[in-house]
């Protein structure tokens, strides 16, 4: 459904999904789609060493990083301020923002974000929540929905659902996950995606929809899914490494991570300096799976330090530090949530 001409407010489309579900993989090609030409982008990250915004590769001028915490917690006010800042900057420059895309952290519950658009006066006057999509990992989605209430809330609130990495899952597992998602949310369409959708514009938000129905907001915001409690024991550990890696050393280090921490490894992401490789190398891992490395076009700064972020379920920070020590890797730690 296209934007109604009678509503002059800026449409905001929010992309949620648990840690490692492939949100950035969905977002990157969407930013090249014609319906999002000139869109502003807000990226929310956990941890004191932000990485996700580097992976988007967005040429537009309006990109905002919110890296002090989760959008549904203290950063709810930061979301309002970021939207206001985008609006005022565009007005000052005598230009318009056609739409805003928001990528949340994987631990974000949608309820407080939806409440921002439903109740905050300045936000309501200038912006409308047009869609809230949730990405669900085909490989780990069933286990994640059982273990983490945030993932359930993301599915329940969504009006668009995408099962990512569908090419990595057996058909029976894919069907079981689809059935569970449909049980949690009987109304939202469910799409499937491999690692690189051939037609991403057709996969999600082919057209910018009209605002979500107010009655659906009201029902969701008064139900049990509106309660917001982060999972206990989830810890984010962020590190910088000054010395370059070589490929064998990196492979050995990641192998140790998988062998010792796979069940607790909710997410690993990193921008790595590889000796003899001019461009930064990006790594991604979830539990026991690390995906093929990618490269960025340029380093974010002159330091060329490797940056690694681990999101762990349970008290595993000490084990992680022991793995660095055993591999002989000198680190500078920035302890986050």
TrEMBL record:
<comment type="similarity">
    <text>Belongs to the SIMIBI class G3E GTPase family. ZNG1 subfamily.</text>
</comment>
<keyword id="KW-0547">Nucleotide-binding</keyword>
<dbReference type="InterPro" id="IPR003495">
    <property type="entry name" value="CobW/HypB/UreG_nucleotide-bd"/>
</dbReference>
<comment type="function">
    <text>Zinc chaperone that directly transfers zinc cofactor to target proteins, thereby activating them. Zinc is transferred from the CXCC motif in the GTPase domain to the zinc binding site in target proteins in a process requiring GTP hydrolysis.</text>
</comment>
<feature type="domain" description="CobW C-terminal">
    <location>
        <begin position="234"/>
        <end position="328"/>
    </location>
</feature>
<dbReference type="GO" id="GO:0000166">
    <property type="term" value="F:nucleotide binding"/>
</dbReference>
<dbReference type="Pfam" id="PF07683">
    <property type="entry name" value="CobW_C"/>
</dbReference>
<keyword id="KW-0378">Hydrolase</keyword>
<protein>
    <submittedName>
        <fullName>Putative GTP-binding protein YjiA</fullName>
    </submittedName>
</protein>
<dbReference type="InterPro" id="IPR051316">
    <property type="entry name" value="Zinc-reg_GTPase_activator"/>
</dbReference>
<dbReference type="GO" id="GO:0005737">
    <property type="term" value="C:cytoplasm"/>
</dbReference>
<dbReference type="Pfam" id="PF02492">
    <property type="entry name" value="cobW"/>
</dbReference>
<keyword id="KW-0143">Chaperone</keyword>
<dbReference type="InterPro" id="IPR036627">
    <property type="entry name" value="CobW-likC_sf"/>
</dbReference>
<dbReference type="InterPro" id="IPR027417">
    <property type="entry name" value="P-loop_NTPase"/>
</dbReference>
<dbReference type="GO" id="GO:0016787">
    <property type="term" value="F:hydrolase activity"/>
</dbReference>
<dbReference type="InterPro" id="IPR011629">
    <property type="entry name" value="CobW-like_C"/>
</dbReference>
């Amino acid at each position: 459904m296209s934007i109604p001409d009678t509503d002059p407010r800026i449409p905001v489309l929010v992309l949620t999904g648990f840690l490692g579900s492939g949100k950035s993989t969905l977002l990157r090609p969407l930013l090249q789609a014609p319906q999002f030409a000139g869109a502003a982008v807000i990226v929310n990250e956990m941890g004191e060493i932000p990485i996700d915004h580097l992976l988007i590769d967005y040429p537009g001028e309006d990109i905002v990083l919110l890296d002090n915490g989760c959008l549904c917690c203290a950063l709810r006010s930061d979301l309002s301020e970021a939207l206001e800042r985008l609006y005022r900057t565009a007005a000052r420059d005598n230009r318009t923002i056609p739409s805003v895309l928001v990528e949340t952290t994987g631990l974000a519950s949608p309820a407080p974000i939806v409440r921002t658009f439903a109740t905050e006066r300045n936000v309501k006057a200038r912006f409308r929540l047009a869609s809230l999509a949730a990405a669900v990992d085909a490989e780990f989605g069933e286990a994640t929905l059982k273990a983490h209430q945030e993932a359930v809330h993301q599915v329940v609130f969504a009006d668009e659902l995408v099962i990512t990495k569908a090419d990595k899952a057996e058909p029976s597992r894919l069907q079981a996950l689809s059935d569970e998602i449909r049980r949690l949310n009987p109304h939202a369409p469910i799409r499937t995606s491999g690692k690189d959708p051939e037609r991403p514009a057709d996969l999600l938000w082919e057209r910018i929809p009209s605002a979500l129905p107010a009655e659906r907001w009201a029902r969701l915001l008064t139900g049990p899914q509106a309660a917001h409690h982060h999972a206990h024991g989830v810890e984010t550990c962020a590190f910088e490494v000054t010395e370059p890696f070589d490929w064998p050393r990196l492979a050995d280090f990641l192998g140790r991570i998988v062998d010792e921490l796979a069940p607790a490894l909710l997410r690993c992401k990193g921008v790595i300096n590889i000796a003899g490789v001019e461009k930064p190398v990006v790594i991604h891992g979830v539990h026991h799976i690390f995906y093929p490395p990618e490269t960025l076009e340029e380093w974010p700064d002159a330091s060329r330090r490797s940056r690694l972020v681990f999101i762990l379920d349970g008290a595993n920070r000490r084990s992680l530090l022991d793995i660095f020590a055993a591999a002989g890797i000198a680190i500078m730690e920035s302890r986050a949530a």
